Amino acid sequence: MAAGFAAEFLTRAKEQAPVLVQRVKSYCPGACADGTGPGGPSEGTGLRGGAGTEMSNFQNYTEEGGYAETSLTNGARLERQGSSVEVDEFGDKGQEKIDEWQAGWNVTNAIQGMFIVSLPYSVQQGGYWGIFALVFVAYICCHTGKILVECLYEYNDKGELIRVRDSYVSIAKVCLGSKWGGRSVHFAQVTELLMTCILYIVLCGDLMVGSFPDSPIDQRSWIMIFTMILLPCAFLRDLRSVSMLSFWCTMAHLFINVIILGYCLLCAGDWGWGKVSWSINMDKFPVTMGIVVFSYTSQIFLPSLEGSMIDRSKFHCMLNWSHIAAAMFKAIFAWLCFLTWTDETQEVITNNLPTRGFKIVINLILVVKALFSYPLPYFAAAALLEHQYFRERPKTLFPSCYAIDGELRVWGLAARVGLVIFTMLLAVSIPYFALLMGLIGSFTGTMLSFIWPCYFHMKLKWGQIETSQICWEVFIIVFGGISGIIGIFTSFAGLVEAYHLPMPPIPVLNEA
Description:
transmembrane helix; cytoplasmic vesicle; 1% strand; mainly alpha; globular; transmembrane
């Protein structure tokens, strides 16, 4: 009987093997090389040519729905954490197409950037649930990234898939209305970008205080010093001058991550296995969930990235593997770092390094990396604000901040300097790295990465998606909404506690 069962099993296995092999192959890196991966439409499937890049012009729309040229972003080399893609306005004017490996490099650097140094803190507050969150949120963000890009496409009368939208904002205008849709996403994008700038400055202050704890210069003073160094960002017309330095700083950061992991492995004999628990600190874990969500936010630029790919059919494959790599590295990095320092794990893990000289060298490299990372979100936020409010009347509320010759007017330059000072003032006012990152992740992170992509996808593709997928996306919306609200409340409560301020009293209704 056993022999018969084994023979039948082998026969069925042989029949299913080709299907299984093909299925596995479609998700392997080789799929990105031969075009067999499960991805979006390619250039040869009826796509409209000249798909633009969202981060290159930051939604330069005219009131009629077209695209407006701005000298601010013309020819700018806009990348996030080390990309090197030459971008231009929507269309093909001077735009350099990228392959799936370059696109994967962009996504990987966006979701494995500077803020990975705070992830061991999530394991300290959530134990194994914190590690699970690093993997689970990666899976959700990978899914929402795919469905957000699907919202860019519609079938025409011939059954061809056409790219009819070019950005997150254009999707929002269709789903939320031309007035409030664009404004809502625009507000979330500007908030996310400016808060990223603030986090870079706060991180610099944290690293310097951790390196020189006995120095008479406190964290807020370091923040002001570094802001003075960043003031020349107001004069930037493009990012070519910092792109190569940013690339090498990114490589140095990867090297630092390897060094930290190497040190953790050397301490394997002293790892605190019993310190990783299944319990959750409910006062702190929602904040760490916000940190995790913030670390995976890449939806802002995914429509532009997909539009700039040579073969867009490989987008899904690229996104799968970049998020798999990020989830594995983040989970292992956070877990090993916590096993090494256990309850002494700090918000910025490099401050746990034992040797002062070693810690200073590592932290100074990270400070330089943060300073060279600041111009990109600052430049993007400035361009978004200029387009939204400073494009001559009656298109916008204020006149253009550019003169006829294309140079910034004096008051326009002053406004840019004021934007740098604004980020400094907020950083000085809220110099709490983990709480600030958790607050932003719980607010804009959940909206941009969880709620809006699923809502937009269901609204635009309701008759084309299965019931199981609808249930999954409804779950993501509910999960994102609940975790976001709790995260905002706990982050705010943490800030109140940090400032030693009394919580507002709860009103008590008098009984009649």
